[in-house]
Amino acid sequence: MFDTHQLKGRPESAYVHRWIDGSPMEMPLGKCVCVGRNYAEHARELGNEVPDEPLLFMKPATALCSLHEPLVLPQEQGAVHHEVEMVVMIGERLSGETDLETIRYAITAYGIGLDLTLRELQDRLKEKRHPWERAKAFDGGAPVSGFIDARGISVRQNLEVSLEVNGETRQHGHTGQMLFPTFELIAQINQMFTLEPGDLIFTGTPAGVGPLAAGDKLTARLGNILQVFTRVA
Q1: Beta 64-66 vs 142-144: how paired, if at all?
Q2: What is the mean pLDDT of residues 19-35?
Q3: How far apart are CA 83 and CA 53, in angstroms?
Q4: What does the pLDDT average to over 71-96?
Q5: Are 61 and 191 within 8 A, CB to CB?
Q6: 61-77 pLDDT, tens per residue?
């Protein structure tokens, strides 16, 4: 497992995609395609129906920030909830692709990230049947780790996705629990819109989401390949 203590304090004036050793990737910043309710227990914990097709929403590139740096949360907008997720980086253009092997080879890297959510605002928007973007797409709302090369990583195995807050496990699941597995998920997304190099797929969060507070210390893990330590500023 790559332990990212060594990356603590690395200066970053602006977000760029990076490998897990901190070196910049030759990838442009693109959109973040996020998947809601891809773990059944998470859908149930928020009182939502379990979907029969992927529930998609977007975050812009301006929402991206480094998970290795202290998290800066929006102020005076209500509770900010953590949602830990496996993140997939697209390396080759995909347009209307359904072949799962083609999709597999178009993935360049894997990481872990947080889909930060202004939960009270999201609940108000949902009550009014309005879009969620104001609760999801804010600056700093998509912290992501450095990325691990996709070669040699098999997501057909069940990769652990977990988050500890102040030493207590808040979220714990594995990719085998995803309602829409990685390659099939990307195929369905790709029927709606083109994916470009540098685009990220946030693949959904397991149950256990909850609020963050100033000073919280976080440990996010993806299987036995990636472990990130961070804190809330």
Answers
A1: parallel
A2: 96
A3: 20
A4: 97
A5: no
A6: 999 999 999 999 999 99
Of 233, 167, 179, the closest CA to residue 205 belongs to 179
- Asked if 48 contacts 201 with a C-beta cutoff of 8 angstroms, the reply is no
What is the rounded distance in angstroms from the CA atom of residue 133 to the CA atom of residue 100? 30
Can you tell me the distance from the alpha carbon of 103 to that of 91, in angstroms, rounded to the nearest whole number?
10
212, 218, 221, 224: CA torsion to nearest 10: -160
Sequence-distant (≥ 6) Cβ neighbours of residue 228 within 8 angstroms: 4, 67, 68, 112, 145, 218, 219, 220, 221
DSSP of 15-31, one letter per residue? Answer: ---BBTTSPBPS-----
Distances (CA, A) of 135 to 80, 101, 124, 141: 9, 35, 10, 9
Q: Can you list the positions of beta strands (E) in 83-208?
A: 84-90, 107-114, 117-118, 142-144, 148-149, 160-165, 168-174, 200-202
Neighbours of 166 (CB within 10 A): 12
> Which residue segments constitute the domains of the chain, with CATH numbers given?
30-208 (3.90.850.10)
pTM of the model: 0.92
Residue 4 confidence (pLDDT): 54
- The three-state (H, E, C) secondary structure of 140-151, written as one string: CCEEECCEEECC
Looking at the predicted structure, is the pLDDT value of residue 152 above 90?
A: no
> Distance between CA atoms of 22 and 39, rounded to whole angstroms?
31
Which residues have CB under 8 Å from 42's CB, separation 6+?
A: 83, 204, 205, 206, 207, 208, 209
